[in-house]
Amino acid sequence: MQQILYPSALSELLPTLLAEAPVPDRIAVLTDQTTYQHCRSLLGNSAATAYDIVIPPTDTHKTLDTLSQVWEGLQRAEATRHSLLINLGGGMVTDLGGFAAATFKRGIRFINIPTTLLAMVDAAVGGKTGINFGGLKNEVGCFADAQTVVVCTELLRTLDDENLRSGYAEMLKHALLTGTDCWARHLRFDLSAPDFDILQGLVRESIVCKQHIVEQDPHEKGIRKALNLGHTVGHALESFLIETQRPVLHGYAVAWGLVCELFMSAAQAGLPTDVLHSTTRFILRTYGRPAITCDDYDRLHALMLHDKKNVAGSIRFTLLSDVGEILIDQTADRTLIEDALDFLREA
Ligand code: GLY
After folding, report:
1. Which residue's CA lies nearest to atom 1 of ligand 1?
2. Sign of the CA dihedral 281, 286, 291, 295?
3. Closest CA to 287 of 337, 329, 226, 230
4. CB 140 within 8 A of CB 103
5. pLDDT, tens digit, for every residue of 213-236?
6. Do 3-158 and 162-346 share a fold?
7. What is the C-alpha radius of gyration for the chain, rounded to an integer number of angstroms?
């Protein structure tokens, strides 16, 4: 199982971690400009002599050009096969940095230190790395495990409200995949006045859920597709809102995708309607609704047809027959998909 450490302060853990055999001959730290400013100093003295590679922030820079900047940075750092890359940042940094490390000199070791909730519970864990390419998200990449993922939940205390809500959507997804007790506890959590002690416990539970699934199917041939719950509709909404110059954070689109895919689960897989309605109430209260109309359905459907999980042109969904009862590779009629979007707009 991938090693996940939960230190209360990064600077206390790093000296021990970096001294572990095999000791790296060079250390490089990858951050984006924002994370460099706010979090680089948290690494403390043990990373003081590391070579810094600083890239532009946000998903728009998860590109081949930025990847090449990281490879160049590793060359300037004179990194060898025995060097270590520390990816300090959100999902963009851990995805791109993981891919840079996995390909530089055919693979060097890397450590992920996620600084956002979304990266802690999802991007930094489970070995998916990559970049966007040709207008498509995560189009080029590979599976490569970070040697260690360091989750310092203290960082969440200073995370902005929108990013906290965004990451929480993936936690809610993990809870729906886990079981009734876990799901009910996630619905009781109040994101308008977050209790950080409770949140830290929920983050650990969420990571355990993801690890448990990834361990059974690291390369997404089967059960790992469960982690796509909410994402078929969610990715289409996310791309559509980018296209129409109204971008939202990933987790908001996933939360709305969950509403649609739970509606479809209730309609064709027997998900109890009280699960649909209580989850929908929580999501609409926390994330509001996307600004879409029925005129947008053709484009949303076309975007779903581009999903990587599709088989022979047919859109595939992960659905639930109950909380924790997972059905992968499900198909659905276009009418049901549109009914689900109506439900999201009008429920
Ligand atoms: N983000 C879904 C996965 O890691 O499979």
Report:
1. 122
2. negative
3. 230
4. no
5. 999 999 999 999 999 999 999 999
6. no
7. 20
Q: Nearest 5°: CA angle at 62, between 314 and 208?
A: 70
Could you tell me if the CB of 250 is within 6 A of ligand 1?
Answer: no
Q: Which residue has the tokens 């096969």?
A: 81
Confidence at residue 306, expressed as pLDDT on a 0 to 100 scale? 84
122 lines ligand 1 (CB under 6 A): yes
pTM for the structure as a whole = 0.96
CATH number of 162-346: 1.20.1090.10
Please state whether the peptide bond connecting residue 272 to the residue before it is cis, i.e. omega within 30 degrees of 0.
no
β-strand partners of 136: 133
* Nearest CA residue ID for atom 5, ligand 1: 227
Q: Which atom of ligand 1 is nearest to the CA of 126?
A: 4
Task: Give the pair of three-digit tokens for residue 151.
Answer: 């989750």
User: In which residue ranges of the chain is pLDDT below 50?
Assistant: none
| Angstrom distance (rounded) from CA 213 to CA 208 | 9
| Count of other CB atoms within 10 angstroms of residue 219 | 10
Architecture of domain 3-158: 3-Layer(aba) Sandwich (3.40)
> For residue 226, how far is its CA from the centre of ligand 1 (angstroms)?
9
CB of 118 shorter than 6 A to ligand 1:
no
Ligand 1: atom nearest CA of 127 is 4
